[in-house]
């Protein structure tokens, strides 16, 4: 096969962007390798022949971040990639939403667009690069596509907007994560999360993104001009004027049906009009052509209904009778499921969400592991859209791409209002079950999710509300719609979802199906969205005016403690023995948060949680001189008492430190089990602790007793010691000048001398006479005393 290798290179924001084709996947209609920095992504597209037997566009988009791109091997038993991750699904949706409206009207050939990451450098995220590669592959493949497209990412770091930020800076320092796709005439897809950016700041970011897109498009056009294949032959279907003329006769009936109250009733009325039209359109049609004509008639009626509804909106009339900026009626029921940690039933018109918030431990955090560095998410939101919510039956196999995308949008809207882990150590999971739907269910999940967290006692920084907006535009006529219905979303030219506080935007998702949407129009749309958002926030605060002061009685209790870093190993114990014993004894979960010694304790019983905290604190604390404790007397000896000042830590209180006066017997002052206040007066190198009760008494005003003689008290007459049968030691005489004995040093620890037994009758030892100075060299120690020399 001929190798028509083409490479084009450009520089965007100081980074090298390269497009290549002709070397890999040469049998695909279009195949491109795109490189940004050292990140590479491959994309290929194939289109089938147009089909007349379907009434939809069969576009399939797939994107994968293969682990070998980052030098990893997949986990699991099979060591192979499984179903798409959330990140992969979101990227697929961004590509799909960008390109689907740009295919030529009427084209129904099956299109498969596949891309995957070849290598990831840890700096340049591959998702936007996959979009650029996919758009370029479509263009060089000659598919019936209206224009050249590109995409970029915009961040807000250190007070400045920038494009294609490094991944670590974007995650840690940016107030904005904005992905925008578009063409020369404007943007067509937006996906973003933000930290309360104002509307003007968001517009500036969109404008910067579009300017960067135009730079990339210029390079892509050069690439396509050299590598592009001939355009695929496709003829748009011819409009059936006769059938459209017949449809016009049903306009009044359709307008009446569209004005029917209630979604189900409105759909039934419209369906009746459609059936009547199809029956009229099939008059005189042979049986052989009946099936084809029926399909054609339904297609015509669908397009006719779209035109009628759009014209009605542009005339200032919406299907449910609301004004363009009017919000549907809102009802909120807090604590709808009382035993959940937090729950709310949020209803806006015919859209309803039952939302719960559940609090867990750090072990419940969601672990994200892909080509990027593994990280953990302490907050996540799951969105469910069962078929009963729209009165339908269908196969149900868990969350689809739409549900994952809607859930992630709601999660992004709420993630930046949660407190820090130091202040609120819980993992938070929100589940939004859509029980009714007629438009804007993802934004109902945002409102319900925020309220559920407030009911659960999560100290959110700001309440957040979401609203879905729409646009209908025909020439110079336009209408911006607040809180759109499902039909208005389907028939409109733009739908965008805005979530945020009264201060700014936290999430924005936008899909634009037409060209010519100006900054002025977007500015007015965002301002109208803000008005609607503020209205919804007021309704929310009427129901739940502030986060609850404490977590639910059914939620786990939590205590935090910081232990010395060198004590972490002791807390864990050999093979986890110590920490497992604590968890079993106190029925808690103990989590070591980091290497600095931060420890979190979770449990259902607050008493046991606090007791476990005290136990850990005691067993890991290092008492220091001057620390005061109230301890318990654990044992009494002749020389003093051992007092437990911390769990597992005892200090010796010598008899001389028990009281301000003379103590004859320890038991005269304290008894076993007494609680006494003591002060640490010494901690030796081995960690042995000495404490004083006397020091505390003096500090509290007690006066030490006067003692006779310098440095000692009146002891009275001391009885003579019984020296046993040791005889008279005699006159020791004048021992003379013993001379300078030099530095004899300490005798050291001579260890346990053992049971040396009695020394027996030593008899009359007589006078020792004048011993004078001792010659230590000539008389080795032990020699001449009946003991062997050490070297013997």
General description of the model:
α1 (86-99) packs across α9 (401-414) and α5 (241-248) packs across α8 (287-314). This protein has 5 domains: 6-227, 2-Layer Sandwich (Ribosomal Protein S5, domain 2), CATH 3.30.230.70; 241-314; 330-543, GHMP Kinase, N-terminal domain (Ribosomal Protein S5, domain 2, 2-Layer Sandwich), CATH 3.30.230; 557-620, Ribosomal Protein S8, Chain: A, domain 1, CATH 3.30.1370; 628-699, Nucleic acid-binding proteins (OB fold (Dihydrolipoamide Acetyltransferase, E2P)). An 8-stranded antiparallel sheet has the order 8-7-9-10-21-20-18-19, with helices on both faces. The protein has a 6-stranded mixed sheet with strand order 1-2-3-4-6-5. It is elongated, with a radius of gyration of 42 Å. The protein contains 16 helices and 29 strands. The protein is 28% helix and 26% strand.
Short description:
With 792 residues, the chain is α+β, with helices and mostly antiparallel strands. Helix content is 28%, strand content 26%.
Q: What is the topology, as strand order, of the major beta sheet?
A: 8-7-9-10-21-20-18-19
Cα radius of gyration in angstroms: 42 Å
Number of domains: 5
Reported by name, the CATH topology of the largest domain is Ribosomal Protein S5, domain 2
Query: Number of DSSP helices?
Result: 16
Main beta sheet strand tally, sense and closure: 8 strands, antiparallel
Look at the structure and give the mean pLDDT: 87
Strand content: 25-35%
CATH architecture designation of the largest domain: 2-Layer Sandwich
- Class by SSE composition: alpha+beta
């Amino acid at each position: 096969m001929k190798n028509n290798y083409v490479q084009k290179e450009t520089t965007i924001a100081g980074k090298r962007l390269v497009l290549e084709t002709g070397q890999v996947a040469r049998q695909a209609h279009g195949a491109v390798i795109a490189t940004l920095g050292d990140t590479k992504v491959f994309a290929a597209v194939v289109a089938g022949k147009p089909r007349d037997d379907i009434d939809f566009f069969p576009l399939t988009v797939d994107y994968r971040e293969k682990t070998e791109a980052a030098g990893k091997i997949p986990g699991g038993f099979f060591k192979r990639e499984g179903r798409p991750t959330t990140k992969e699904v979101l990227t697929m949706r961004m590509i799909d939403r960008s390109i689907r409206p740009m295919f030529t009207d009427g084209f129904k050939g099956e299109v498969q667009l596949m891309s995957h990451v070849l290598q990831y450098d840890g700096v340049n995220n591959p998702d936007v690069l996959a979009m650029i590669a996919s758009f370029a592959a479509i263009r060089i493949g000659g598919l019936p596509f209206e224009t050249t497209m590109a995409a970029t990412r915009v961040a807000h770091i250190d007070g400045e907007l920038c494009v294609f930020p490094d991944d670590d800076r974007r995650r840690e320092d940016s107030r904005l994560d904005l992905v925008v796709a578009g063409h020369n005439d404007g943007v067509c897809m937006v996906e973003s999360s933000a930290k309360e950016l104002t509307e003007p700041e968001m517009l500036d970011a969109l404008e910067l993104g579009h300017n960067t897109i135009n730079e990339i498009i210029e390079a892509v056009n050069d690439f396509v001009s050299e590598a592009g294949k001939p355009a695929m032959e496709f003829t748009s279907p011819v409009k059936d004027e006769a059938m459209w003329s017949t449809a016009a006769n049903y306009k009044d009936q359709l307008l009446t049906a569209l004005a029917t109250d209630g979604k189900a009733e409105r759909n039934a009325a419209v369906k009746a009009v459609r059936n009547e039209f199809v029956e009229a359109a099939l008059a005189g049609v042979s049986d052989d052509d009946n099936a084809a004509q029926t399909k054609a008639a339904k297609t015509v009626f669908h397009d006719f209904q779209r035109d009628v509804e759009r014209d009605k909106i542009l005339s200032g009339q919406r299907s449910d009778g609301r004004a363009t900026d009017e919000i549907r009626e809102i009802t909120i029921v807090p604590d709808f499921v009382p035993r959940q940690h937090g729950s709310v039933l949020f209803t806006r018109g015919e859209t309803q969400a039952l939302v719960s918030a559940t609090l867990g431990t750090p072990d419940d955090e969601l672990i994200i592991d892909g080509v990027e560095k593994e990280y953990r998410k302490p907050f996540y939101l799951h969105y469910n859209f069962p078929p009963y919510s729209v009165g339908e039956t269908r196969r149900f196999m868990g969350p689809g791409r739409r549900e994952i995308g809607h859930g992630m949008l709601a999660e992004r809207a709420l993630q930046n209002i949660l407190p820090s882990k130091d202040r609120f150590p819980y993992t938070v999971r929100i589940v939004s079950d859509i029980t009714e739907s007629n438009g804007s269910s993802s934004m109902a999940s945002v409102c319900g999710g925020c309220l559920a967290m407030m009911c659960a006692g999560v100290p959110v920084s700001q309440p957040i509300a979401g609203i879905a907006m729409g646009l209908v535009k025909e020439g110079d006529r336009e209408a911006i719609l607040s809180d759109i219905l499902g039909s208005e979303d389907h028939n409109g030219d733009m739908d965008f979802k805005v979530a945020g506080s009264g201060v700014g935007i936290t999430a924005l998702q936008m899909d634009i199906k037409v060209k010519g949407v100006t900054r002025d129009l977007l500015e007015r749309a965002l301002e109208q969205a803000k008005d609607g958002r503020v209205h919804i926030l007021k309704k929310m605060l009427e129901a739940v005016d502030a986060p609850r002061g404490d977590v639910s009685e059914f939620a786990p209790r939590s205590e935090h403690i910081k232990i010395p870093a060198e004590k972490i190993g002791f807390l864990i114990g050999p093979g986890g023995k110590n920490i497992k014993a604590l968890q079993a004894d106190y029925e808690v979960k103990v989590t070591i948060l980091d290497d600095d010694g931060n420890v979190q304790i979770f449990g259902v019983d607050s008493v046991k949680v606090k007791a476990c905290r005290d136990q850990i604190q005691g067993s890991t604390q290092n008492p220091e001189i001057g620390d005061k404790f109230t301890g318990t007397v654990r044992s009494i000896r002749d020389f003093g008492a051992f007092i437990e000042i911390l769990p597992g830590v005892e200090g010796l209180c010598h008899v001389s430190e028990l009281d301000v006066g003379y103590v004859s017997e320890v038991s005269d002052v304290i008894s076993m089990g007494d609680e006494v206040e003591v002060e640490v007066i010494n901690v030796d190198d081995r960690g042995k602790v000495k404490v004083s009760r006397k020091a505390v008494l003096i500090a509290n005003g007690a006066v030490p007793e006067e003692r006779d003689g310098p440095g000692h008290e009146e002891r009275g007459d001391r009885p003579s010691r019984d020296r046993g049968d040791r005889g008279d030691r005699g006159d020791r005489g004048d021992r003379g000048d013993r001379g300078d004995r030099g530095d004899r040093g300490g005798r050291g620890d001579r260890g346990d001398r053992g049971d040396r037994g009695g020394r027996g009758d030593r008899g009359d030892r007589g006078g020792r006479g004048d011993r004078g100075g001792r010659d230590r060299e000539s008389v080795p120690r032990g020699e001449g005393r009946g003991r062997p020399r050490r070297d013997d």
